[in-house]
Amino acid sequence: MRRLIDKREKERGAAGVLVAVMMLVLIGAGAMAVDVGQIYAERAQLQNAADAGAMAAAQQCHRAPGDCTAQALTWAQDMTAGNSNDGATTVDSVDLAVPGQVTVATSTRNGTSGAGFLTQLFASALNAPPVTVGARATAVIEPLGGATAFPLAISDCQYDLSGAEESGDIQLIKYKPGTGTCTSTSGHVIPGGFGWLDDGGACTATTDSGDIASTDTGASFPGSCTAIVTAWRDTILAGGTVEATVPVYDDAGGTGHGGWFHIRGYATFKIIGWAFSGGGTPEVFRATMPWVGTPANACTGSCRGIIGQFIRFESIGEVGGTPGTGPDLGTVNIRLIK
């Protein structure tokens, strides 16, 4: 009987050791599960921050290319913190080595302690080292390859945005027969001013850079555009701005229903006023002093024209055509590529 009791006591001791070992394993597995979840959550926040930083820096680099090298890191930092749960993210680097791209790398920074690693990890109880998590994002700046827009095209002769300028001069752009001709950047003699595109009755025209677009050779603006032009007026009267992305043509030909423009690319025109014809309302809006800047920009009497200036513009929405296939006329699409 004594031998049997001793054996059971020994078994109890072995079971106690086994339970202790299994508890340690279970605690370690639980700590790993919790910590891995925390690491994944941290990386998701850092990715949000990297995405926001890359997009913000790309937008600012396009608006102010002369300041891009010196300011890109600051621009990225301004957006990363607000896109992390604890309001703190380290921007390790901003890479501008590839033209037209901005790559932002982020890593962990605790919003309370400032530590560069994750705190309150359960695995630290098992003497595991601290963990730093990182993420990267790249935003690309691409000229528009096509667009569906208001059915008005402006001559290459009027386009005046160049270099690092944020805006061109305020100018009166007349309906093309009243402006004469000029030589475009492609070397073609073309009518200056602006012309109407065939809108198919929908007040939009879908065009692609490098392609031919059918024109409406009449001077009247399409009746289908009355609602849009009215909205322009209401926006300006309310203190807002109207910025229309329009095709720029560098060659033209044909007459009547066979008229056409060759689309060079896309630019954004900030509209101040206009004097259209065609029976729609409002036909004329702020086409005279003091709104047009100088008396030379006034459009009165039989004048038909649009007054405004070309500006740099960044779109982060969907655009038509093949991205990046057109020339950069100051209007680009910015998107994340990785």
Q: How would you explain this protein's 3D organization?
A:
There is one protein chain. The chain is α+β, with helices and mostly antiparallel strands. It folds into two domains: 2-142, no CATH class; 146-336, no CATH class. The protein contains three helices and 17 strands. The protein has helices at residues 2-63, 68-80, 226-237, and strands spanning 90-95, 101-107, 134-143, 146-149, 152-155, 171-174, 181-183, 189-191, 194-197, 205-208, 212-216, 242-253, 260-275, 284-285, 305-311, 313-315, 331-336. The strands form four sheets. The chain has a five-stranded mixed beta sheet, with helices on one face. A five-stranded mixed β-barrel has the order 5-9-11-13-12. Strand 12 (242-253) and strand 13 form a beta hairpin. Helix 1 packs across helix 2. It is elongated, with a radius of gyration of 31 Å. It starts with a helix and ends with a strand. The mean pLDDT is 82.
